[in-house]
Amino acid sequence: MTRSSSVRSVLAALGAAVGGLAARDLAQKKHSILRNYPVVGHLRYLLEDIRPEIQQYFIERDWDGRPFDRDIRTIIYERAKGIHGEQAFGTERDVNAMGYEYLVHSIAPVTAPDTPPRVRIGGPDCAQPYSMSLLNVSAMSFGALSPNAIRALNKGAAMGGFAHDTGEGGLSKYHEENGGDLVWEIGTGYFGCRTKDGGFDPHQFAEKARKDQVKCVSLKLSQGAKPGIGGVLPGPKVSQEIAEARGVPVGEKCVSPPGHKVFSTPVELIEFIARMRELSGGKPAGFKLCVGSREQVLAICKAIREVGTAPDFIIVDGSEGGTGAAPLEFEDHVGMPLTQGLMLVHNALVGTGLREHIKVGASGKIAAGNDIVKRLIQGADYTNAARAMMMAVGCVQAQRCQTNTCPTGVATQDPRRNRALNVPDKSERAYRFQKSSVEEAVSIMAAMGVRDPADLRPSMLRRNVTETETASYAELFGWLQPGELLEQPPASWADDWAHARADSFGTDLRSTVHGSR
After folding, report:
1. Taking a C-beta distance cutoff of 8 angstroms, is the pair 411, 405 a contact?
2. Is 0.70 surpassed by the pTM of this model?
3. With contact defined as beta carbons under 8 Å apart, do 51 and 68 qualify?
4. Which residues contact 36 (CB under 8 A, 6 or more apart)?
5. 279 dihedral zone (left: phi>0; alpha: psi -120 to 50; beta)
6. Which residues contact 197 (CB under 8 A, 6 or more apart)?
7. Which residue positions in the chain have pLDDT lower than 50?
């Protein structure tokens, strides 16, 4: 055999091997990246295997600054894959740094309950209350997510008995395909229950809200990543399927206005929530907001007392929450972070004697068991996760959501890329991630000596306030007593309480969560 023929034989064998590998990658259903990027996609998994060794050269950070070799993404991916989360060595956090927070364990821990606690959503005026999990899928629309991503999340919700928020993009056939519990969110565009001129259609709303799969209905006032502005879906992206889900013309630009048409005052907002509950057949009705001013939250509380009916739930979205696309200025500089917003809403409801019948949800970078427990201490009854759920079904944070070129098929409407996301496999991952995270939250509470979230106290969460001192949330923040605002408002709340009006949201943004000017 000549040298040239030997080279040709080697190249042919190599080509056959690469072709065989490519065929195998295209056929397998476990890895979305390999289905979209056969052969070359293996480079990512190679780097994933050796990343602790190359960390000193290539430092990548996740959303709260932790190194990428043992960050929140690792927790999510491992739990989604069913891998135990135990790790060698100790904490990688600087436990002495200012701002470091930790949960207080008990010297006498208790046994965790066999069944994780759930939350009953539904006040006195609700005819069909719903039992909510401690962790659920936060609002993400069909359009922002692909059909297969919606399918996988909803099937995972059906398997695990947790809720799936539709986002404001309408109630699509993909949300309904696998029978998971739904929270139908209505935004300023009223997609799915929209008149031709962009108003609210009560007949369409009632028809869809009364479906058995819809367990709660939610009115979106604002979103943490872009509070105060609406979204725009360019005409070329408005496909037949998206048009059907949103109730808009195919190929025409789809605009979500910054504000609602159905109300202009706090009283009208509460009256509309009551109307949503009635139209849905008595299902829990509430709203979601990113908190702006305390005065406006108190105005809503005054409206609730004046109207005589209350939302069944309020979802507080932190400004650190994510989005498929928003101006950077809004993402980084507008809206109240979840910690402050959550405590403000909780205290306002307590101080006005309304907390007992209104449940509070929290959303904004919630991913692990400690996040759930922390938010329960700060005033939430349950939590919602968006980014973590996306990662559970394959998102690798390529941050190309707005380009329609998501490499894993999670955030794209490209049919070829979307097919890479295998629904049976990814729904199992969503199910496993949610189950493991809730179990860890329950385990943490048991280590703190608590079996019921109602027994959590602000004193159980502490923060380093200097290099040598720590303080609990009970010491750092003021916590109102039931009905305190109605009887004798404390000085730090008195001015906002006096100026809040049930008939006007006003424009006075003078005070912060602490009442300073």
Report:
1. no
2. yes
3. yes
4. 407, 408, 409, 416, 417, 420
5. alpha
6. none
7. 47, 50-70, 508-517
